[in-house]
Amino acid sequence: MQTRLSIWQVITGLFIVLLIIEAVVLPYGSSKLNDYSGSAGILDLRLSYSVDKAYAIIGAYSDAGRAFYVTFTLTADFIYPIVYSLFFALLTTVIYRRAFAPKSWAHQLPLLIYITLLLDYLENACIVTMLTQYPDQITFIAKASSLFTTLKWMMAAISVLLLLLGVVMLIVKRLRKTH
Questions:
Q1: Please, are residues 124 and 106 in contact by the beta-carbon 8 Å criterion?
Q2: This prediction's pTM
Q3: pLDDT score, position 19
Q4: Cα gap 86→5, rounded to integer Å
């Protein structure tokens, strides 16, 4: 399925949706969340946080702010990880198809990008739990949330590195053919 979807029409469509989400939806949500919290921040955008910091941020939101955060997480932040994961995985698959030999083990590497999707969903589940259970503080959920957030960002960086590896290998392959 990954190989069948790895065509430029699908990748271009995903790129357009990704641009719309990043240019319109996410800035709107971030702005609203900052308004609700007095600019306390958004847990998803941090690299990590302590239990105290997580609950200080959540506590800065009004009830309406926490409700908006939950709604935003269950809608926009449900769709966004699918779009960015598919975009990066399919684009990387197309590049690897050209950069590596047909039977190379490297063709499996783009599948690692979907780990970012899983980690983002686990992070979101923890954040929604903390928001809906507030003012109760569930320490292990806050710690797990921070861990998933950190791992999500690490996997996002690895995803970009996998894409860059493919581009570099493609350039090397083309340079070898010209010499």
A1: no
A2: 0.91
A3: 97
A4: 9
